[in-house]
Amino acid sequence: MSSIFPFINTTPVTDQTLVQKLPVFHEYAYDPEHNRLALGEDGLPYMVEENEALRIWIYKALSTERFHYVAYDTDYGSETDTLIGKNYNTDITNSELKRMIVEALMCNPYIEELSNWEFEAERNRIRVSFDVTTIYGTDRFEKGVDI
């Protein structure tokens, strides 16, 4: 505590402190190739934790159109669908795509940073890949976005 302002906590928040405050992130295992829950050997859905669960959350958040479904909060989802049919130059498209992804993902308290962005233009898509630093470590994520 500061002696001048005893009501202000000056103890820095570390990654370890944050891990202790947040519960373990978990999500049902998901099979994006078939667009359904993954099933275990017993034929039932099962849970995954930490970065594996966050990869599923990221995939779903980037695949869900923001503001289109009343079941979701307005903080959930992305607006990348608004890039479809726009004839921006490559730099503007990449910049807008990066901004939209950051807005979609940084609302999650388990995600600390998005970095090392790479954009690869395909015919009517952009393949974007980036590092996601979470309270559990760093993971690489890749997604194709229609434009």
Present the secondary structure layout:
Elements: H1 15-21, E1 26-28, E2 30-31, E3 36-37, E4 47-49, H2 50-63, H3 90-105, E5 111-121, E6 125-134, E7 137-146
The biggest beta sheet reads: 3 strands, antiparallel
SSE order: HEEEEHHEEE
How much β-strand is present in the residues?
25-35%
Helix- and strand-based class?
alpha+beta
Distance between the termini: 52 Å
Backbone shape: globular
Number of strands: 7
Major sheet: order of its strands? 5-6-7
Q: Give the number of helices.
A: 3
State the share of residues found in helices, binned by percent. 25-40%
Q: Compute the gyration radius: what is it?
A: 18 Å
In the predicted model, the low-confidence regions spanning at least 5 consecutive residues are none
Structure description:
By secondary structure, this protein is of the alpha+beta class. Helix content is 25%, strand content 28%. The model has no long low-confidence stretch (mean pLDDT 85).
Features:
two-stranded antiparallel sheet; 3 helices; alpha+beta; 147 residues; three-stranded antiparallel beta sheet; 28% strand
